[in-house]
Amino acid sequence: MNEGGQDSGRTARSVKRADARRNEKTLLAAAAEVFVTSGVEAPIRDIATKAGVGTATIYRHFPSRADLIVAVYRHQVEALAEAGPDLLATSATPHAALGRWMDLFVDFLVTKLGLAAVLQSDDPCFDPLHSYFLDRLLPVCTQLLDTAAGAGEIRPGQDAYELMRGVASLCAGAGDNPRYDSRRLVALLIAGLRG
């Protein structure tokens, strides 16, 4: 095959890979929405309908429900991890970036896509998810805290793990109680970090 033929073959594969990645992101977004409203045991056909694809397409990307749940969880964690640096670049102050990121973190924790029970299951395929969560999000939270401290907006020496555990504990109490506003409590906590 000539050089031009090889280039067009590589281009076709690149386009196909880009399409596959786009399709996978669409499936993950649809699954996340369905999991929020119906839980992780929602019928695959509901996810397929939401994504505008057939169920075979979902099974081609994610052979089992566990594969889909893990992929959705990782996708949500990645979005949260990527948001930190973006917020630092676009927010008026580092403290504002920290507050906005914590809002996203609260959304993740409160609407954790029905994953709380899954993460406590005996299925070993879910074991690495907690470590993945910490590995991806602790550095982001640390960066936000360090930047805000460096700007003199919060007291230095704040521990990201401790803060994230505290926020998670505040969110755990939310349930369906309309008188319990975890977002308001987290905002008070973040305001209290000011020096």
From TrEMBL:
PROSITE patterns: HTH_TETR_2 (PS50977). It holds the Pfam family TetR_N. Residues 21-80 form the HTH tetR-type domain. It comes from Streptomyces camponoticapitis. Residues 43-62 bind DNA. Coiled coil: none annotated. This is TetR family transcriptional regulator. PANTHER family: HTH-TYPE TRANSCRIPTIONAL REGULATOR BETI, HTH-TYPE TRANSCRIPTIONAL REGULATOR RUTR. It comes from the Bacteria. Keywords: DNA-binding, Transcription, Transcription regulation.
